[in-house]
Amino acid sequence: MSSNSSDAVLIATLAAISTQINRYMTIIIFLFGTIGNFLNCLALSQRTLRSNPCALLFLASSIASLITLISGVGVRFLSGWSADLTETIDFLCQIRFFVLSTSRTIAFWLITLAMVDRWLSSSIDVHRRQMSTLKNAQRGIVFIIILSSLAHAHYFYCFEANRQSTSQKCYGKTVLCRFVYDLEFALVTVLIPSFLMIIFGLLTVFNVHQSAMRRVRPIVTIQVMQRGVVNRKSPRIKKIEHQLRVMLCVQTTFVILFSLPQAIFSLYTLIGQGGTKSPVTNIISVLLLNLFVQFTYITNGMPFYVYTLSGGTVFRKALFDGLRDVFRKMTCRCSSPA
């Protein structure tokens, strides 16, 4: 009797902690993440950055992260107050998970593509450097959006609301559906892009080191005026390239650290899916899932703060220019006669 009573108290305590996480931690992530991604879009769309393919990928990733926060964190906040309609209406459940999973996958893969772009732009091979273009970045964005949407299209069949025997009320309706969802998230959304980020990150470091060690003869330009233009632009472009590279490396580190726990937990869930679990084990699984999901959402909400701290003067200047333009437009609109 005492054992059952202590288990009941533990279950109630863990359930209360899980509810508090959904209520209050989601508010912090949602507010800071939404504001940060809006400011990201403002800064990265400025003239000094928008012509750079890596900055364009950052901008597209920020938009995808913003959609992820709205469809993911916003809904989880409602569930903490028992006001989540996706838990009771099948269509909303399916739409929510499709938009959430697609946008989250797009955000991760765009960062991976940005790392590939940095590897290309830092290469000593001129043909590889020529592949780092705005047009190729745009093609990559479209390609990733299409593939991610197709990869998650089966959610409209697999997901349903009012699930009672699973960790989430809006979840896969069959064992196969839940298996595919967990495996897809662990591999396609997190582990594969994380592995590629590490590989191309190391290759980029190697390229930078190789470029530093390699002596390049200066190109003698006949026209003095043209030579002055090249010398004037080259340091600015190199500074932007360097600071974008630093921003990407810092963001990649945090993305991997905060997203791996949920991916590992998903794989663990897949391995132990067939066994019978006690109520205490189930509530611990729910608590860990809620906590690790919040960690994953942090990766979508933190880029602005990472860019601000690691982006140097380039990103901060673009942000201040964007804020000044918005303030000027608002001032002009308010002062204009009715």
Q: N-to-C SSE series?
A: HHHHHHHEEHHHHH
Which word captures the global form?
globular
Number of helices in the DSSP assignment: 12
Give the C-alpha Rg. 24 Å
Strand content: under 5%
Please describe the biggest sheet, giving its number of strands, its sense, and whether it closes into a barrel: 2 strands, antiparallel
Low-confidence segments, given as residue ranges, are 216-233
What value does the average pLDDT take? 83
Strand order in the sheet with the most strands? 1-2
Q: How many runs of DSSP E, i.e. beta strands?
A: 2
**What proportion of the residues is helical, as a percent range?**
over 70%
Distance from first to last alpha carbon = 76 Å
Structural class: mainly alpha
Description:
The chain is mainly α. It is 82% helix and 1% strand. The protein has 12 helices and 2 strands. It has a two-stranded antiparallel ribbon. Helix 1 runs antiparallel to helix 3, helix 1 packs parallel to helix 10 and helix 4 crosses helix 9. The chain is globular.
